[in-house]
Task: structure prediction
Amino acid sequence: MAERWTAQWKELFAEVVTSGLCTGCAGCVVACPHDVLGYKDTDGVYRPFHLEEELGPADCAHGERGCTSCTRACPRFRSWEPELDNHLFGRTRAPEEMAGVSKDIILARATNREVHQKGQDGGLVSAILLWAMEHGYIDAALVSYLEGDGSSWKAVPGVARTREEVLAAAGSRYTYSANTMAYADAVAGGAEKLALVGMSCQSSVPPALTVRKAGKPARRFVLNIGLLCSKTFDDAIFEELFEAKYGLKKQDMVKMNIKGVFQIWMRNGDYHEVPLKECHAWTREGCKLCPDFAAEHADISTGGIGAFNDWTLTIVRTDIGREIIVKMLQDGTIEGRPGDDDPGAIELLRKLSIVSRRRWPSTATSGPEVGVPPKKPKVPAPAPTPVAAP
Ligand SMILES: Cc1cc2nc3c(=O)[nH]c(=O)nc-3n(C[C@H](O)[C@H](O)[C@H](O)COP(=O)(O)OP(=O)(O)OC[C@H]3O[C@@H](n4cnc5c(N)ncnc54)[C@H](O)[C@@H]3O)c2cc1C
Ligand code: SF4
Ligand code: SF4
Result:
């Protein structure tokens, strides 16, 4: 018989929120039926916190009385990976499936010129959202916008209900946006069927809500689109690196991308590259132990690695994901080509998934590290050839 689930905020606080495992995905906040969890997204902190004073920050009176929604919703709590794998795929990931379980890997892009141009890579994510709205699959999507007029480059969660809103949200920002936090707004606006667009960590939230029966939000997430991700950066990177070292002011930036280097396009047409090595010091705290590069629990995972810049590398994982992609290919909303057209991208997907999985600490519940090959020992530099005595 399955063991009774009794873990509440007290356990979540000790085992995830303060242990380094917390990604800031906000699954726990969305699931809390008593609204006693807040979410801090200022000063570079992206974390949940307990609002009630009664038992202090590390315990919850509702939890003491039997509420367990937050630990059920958390995609980093205990054996989350095999539980979610079993729920979505009917089996756990095989050790060699470094990028998670999938049905197909293709390259895809929007055929509509505007959608393609506004998208970060092939505009596939925006094309899916528009198509899913037009065909009654979803009423709204939880996405990310830029705050205010965009000049602060602060990424914020929001709801997209129209074509204009989907396109306004297109493109990638490389700081964190807990798109799950837009759930309450979407529901208040009357949406019943939602798509979540989110980083790998966020895309494990909907299946966690469902499989562990974490309350009402589960039934509204009908489509789950993940973004491949090896890290996000602290908001401070704009002032402390880009401006301080390179004189690049964020209010003059118009687009950014990461392709081996941090690429930045400026309003006056200038283009700059910042070596990723220099950016690492601004890796957001919540990403440092994250093992999921490939958004392994999304219906469709999307990324920009590979030789073809204006295509989206597309990993189709579930039945609903496949149904949507096939229908979109058939009606010409998107065009596709086999993933094997770019073997380098498939190899990089595997390599980057391994790099992320190596972060999972041995002190946490086993799972993400299964099958990860040991690091190759560094080959010592050859000893200098002795100079022959004259
Ligand atoms: C922080 C970050 C890191 C990434 N790292 C990698 C990587 O290492 N390797 C790789 O192959 N791909 C990475 N990606 C994915 C890649 O940049 C594209 O998002 C993906 O290929 C889809 O492109 P598209 O043109 O189909 O999407 P688009 O049509 O441009 O749609 C992108 C969607 O992502 C949402 N979004 C944008 N920024 C954020 C954010 N910060 N948080 C949450 N949602 C956001 C938008 O609201 C939009 O709905 C990353 C994306 C992000 C946001
Ligand atoms: S990982 Fe997500 S669900 Fe878990 S504690 Fe952190 S914010 Fe909450
Ligand atoms: S690396 Fe990406 S997926 Fe992992 S915690 Fe950071 S933002 Fe989330």
